[in-house]
Amino acid sequence: MNRAFAVLLWITAGFCLALRVGGSQPAAAAPQDPAELERCLAVIVNQSNPVENLSLAELRTIFRADRNHWPDGRRVTIALREPGKLERATVLREIYQMTERDFSRYFLHATFTGEALSTPKTLATAGGVRKFVFNVPGAIGCVRAGEVDETVKVIRLDGRLPGEKGYRLQLERP
Amino acid sequence: MTEQQRQKLNSSARAVARHYRSTLLLILIGFGMAAAGVLVVRDVRIANREVQQMYAGSVLGLRRIGELLYEAQEARRSTLYALTTSDANLQIEYADQSRTSDARVTSFIRQLFEAARSPAEIQAGQRLERDWAAYLEVRDNVLASILEGSSQQAVQTDLKDGVPTFNRVREDLHDVKQLYEQQAAAQLAAVDASARRSVWKLVGILCLTQLFAGFSVWSAVQRGKILQVVQHSEARLRESEERIRLLLDSTAEAIFGINSEGNCTFSNPSCAHVLGYDRPSDLLGKNMHELTHHTRPDGRAYPQQECPIDRAMRQGKNVHGDQDELWRADGTSFPAEYWCYPIWRGKESMGSVVTFLDITERKQRKKNWSRPKRPRWREAAPRANFSPT
Prior knowledge:
The structure holds two protein chains of two kinds. Chain A is α/β, with parallel strands linked by helices.
């Protein structure tokens, strides 16, 4: 009886492992549902930026100005939407893990102490963010995945593109 | 046909020939003028095409250079405007404007040198493209520095690289402009020369037209004068002919004219009447010797060569005779006294005018007078010692 229970346990564990491994694989064919894309926030960089993938932790260090340069030596410049916008709120929640007030205070301090070379740029529109990233080689920004065009490059977050299962930057529901 | 009629006919024939010559000349001149007109039209078309080519090439090129210079300055101005603000949104707006102008400039440069043919144009185009690409690279760096918030670095980059590169672009544009100006000047000179040629041709045609018009007027005036003279001469001739005809018709003396062949050229009613014809026209064109003088009084044939009238006419002498007989239409004859006067044209005898009289009665009287009866008074007073006078 114990033996049978042990075999069943092994089978279940193997099945669960198989499911786990399959689930952690990035989806080869990402769902391109527009509604799904609208709910995701894409991290975009300049087309000349060699970085393709970042972990959420790395993204956090970049956005918090703990890391001010890209591997190719270019200075990091952050582009964000205006306060009150859903994209900005999502970035603050998921990446900075701060409130708007904390964010302001944080960068005031970082700039004053010289930890941050520049404060994040605040832009009124998603197009503005895109254009900023297009014009500045070391820029990084976040826009809705549906608003991304070919002038910028979307980087993978923990190996996942927006719309793929397990993608972390989901816009919070209003 | 009288000599005068022949002369008139000759004169008319000459007038007709002159008229046809004038018409032929008119047609030839018309063709010449049409050909010259075609040449001028062709020249004008060529000049028009050259102007169009010049406009399409150099003038359009110059205009594009102007637009290009404006857009390049606009691109630079937008870049510099981005320096004047710290608002990222405005900076992005200026960067966008700068890039739009850049795209226009690049497009203009491509259009401008797509049609480049001469080595100088191609070389200038390549230099401009190279310098413009270098400027765009510097501009990108400047924009990036501005957007990153490093205005100081942006200014430094612009002063170090941007200004010299943009000045090179301006110099290139200036060179291209000079190139197009030279081409435009050369083409303008060619068009000017072509237009001058056309003007000279036009002047030539106008001169020809004036000459032709003058000639036509002169010709018309001359023709009018000639016509006036001819009409006057004809009137005088008609008057003269009328007078002569009245004279001939009214005179009792028979008169006819013959030409050098002895054919009748005119006659009067007395002549027709004496010769037994109804009208003078019955005699016209007929050989008068064969008609009226063919037989001698003794009945022998009278050859024309022996006829004193014919001989006198050939010799150009006057002749008078009263020993011959003339023959009537009905075959009877009568003794006639005639006078023959040759008609001269210059030194050549053209014919004769013959007047004659029926001298039957005179002959009879003479015959009677040649054997007079002894007057009665002589019989009454014989041997009187006086004679009649």
